[in-house]
């Protein structure tokens, strides 16, 4: 449960709001490289943190992110012509370069100096690993992000993004929430032997760090030891999780990957979910077939996504819920692991959940920790301190993992090596 004013503070991210200012302290993912694939390609619309923007790749290959509305008479620059290192508004021909300078004003007298007094808001960009990042703050630019996955070579790494129609915080909280996987993501209710079915009440432990916190869900498998899922929450909106399942006697090993999400608010009622994965062993490249299988499993395969990175299974069709499947095979009857999440999160209260009415239990420890940390970041900024996780040194060497550990071994010790970056 949260006080009403704290809930408002955390959920709203437009310019000038407390959490909006926190988000504007970090580099955030803005676009996939594939959205502006080559110099002078068509411009794209973009909305981030409640701001309507337009993006284009100029003639020199640099990606520009500008205010969407032309400062002349407010036409949308999405209609613009991307030509010779600038975007030209098609209403009266004003042209802007990637830094937002007005470089041509052909409907004014030749000797007019007016164009030198007109400027459009522009945000700096940085391109890495198929993602165009932006910094929307006013102060000095922080160092570029340096997550381990940004250092993994392209052969080992894959990224996608999907639209989710809910407030960013309920999407993030869903990612952090580990106990729901025994229920919402149980895709074989007959299988009583799976780790999830054997222990539905993981014990949570949270360790705060300089970048956010790391935490584990410990599932007690009795004589078989503990199944431990170790995660990182990296401020302000990233979560990493492991996917290497290894029995302590070495008898079972799945494909070793680390996965994660970053949740970037579009506005107060929608969010871009960035999905990344990479192999956790530098000697093993990411198998494209495995990668595709995973995307399909999570509900974002080629047949699952509509233009604009929206899912075919969405609130307009009740996520194509199959009640017979729900009765006989899967807990939700909805196909796609992340689609199951979206169904639950997108249909909560609008514009965002009323956290004054929640009843949180011990399984919600990590969610409570994330809220505290985000509120702390708001206070840090208000009091002139840099929020946690802005400095890449704080997180560059961490990673998440999934492991079985024998009883009696503390995860901090047993997983120390597996939670160290290898790239
Ligand atoms: S509105 Fe863009 S040039 Fe007039
Ligand atoms: Fe989930």
Key attributes of the depicted protein:
four-stranded antiparallel sheet; alpha+beta; binds fe (ii) ion; 21 strands; Rieske Iron-sulfur Protein; 423 residues; binds FE2/S2 (inorganic) cluster; 10 helices; Naphthalene 1,2-dioxygenase Alpha Subunit, Chain A, domain 1; eight-stranded antiparallel sheet
Overview of this structure, please?
- The protein is an alpha+beta fold.
- 19% of the residues lie in helices and 26% in strands.
- The strands form five sheets. Strands 12, 13, 14, 15, 16, 17, 18 and 21 form an eight-stranded antiparallel beta sheet that branches.
- The chain is elongated, with a radius of gyration of 23 Å.
- The model has no long low-confidence stretch (mean pLDDT 95).
- FE2/S2 (inorganic) cluster binds next to loops.
What is the CATH superfamily of the largest domain? Naphthalene 1,2-dioxygenase Alpha Subunit, Chain A, domain 1
Give a list of the ligands: FE2/S2 (inorganic) cluster, fe (ii) ion
DSSP strand (E) fraction? Answer: 25-35%
Q: State the share of residues found in helices, binned by percent.
A: 10-25%
Ranges where pLDDT stays below 50 over 5 or more residues in a row are none
Radius of gyration: 23 Å
* Structural domains: how many: 2
Largest sheet: 8 strands, antiparallel
CATH architecture of the largest domain: Alpha-Beta Complex
Say how many strands there are.
Answer: 21
Mean pLDDT: 95
Number of helices: 10
Which CATH C-level class of the largest domain is it?
Alpha Beta
Overall 3D shape: elongated
Query: Which structural category fits the helices and strands?
Result: alpha+beta
CATH fold call of the largest domain: Naphthalene 1,2-dioxygenase Alpha Subunit, Chain A, domain 1
- Cα end-to-end separation: 39 Å
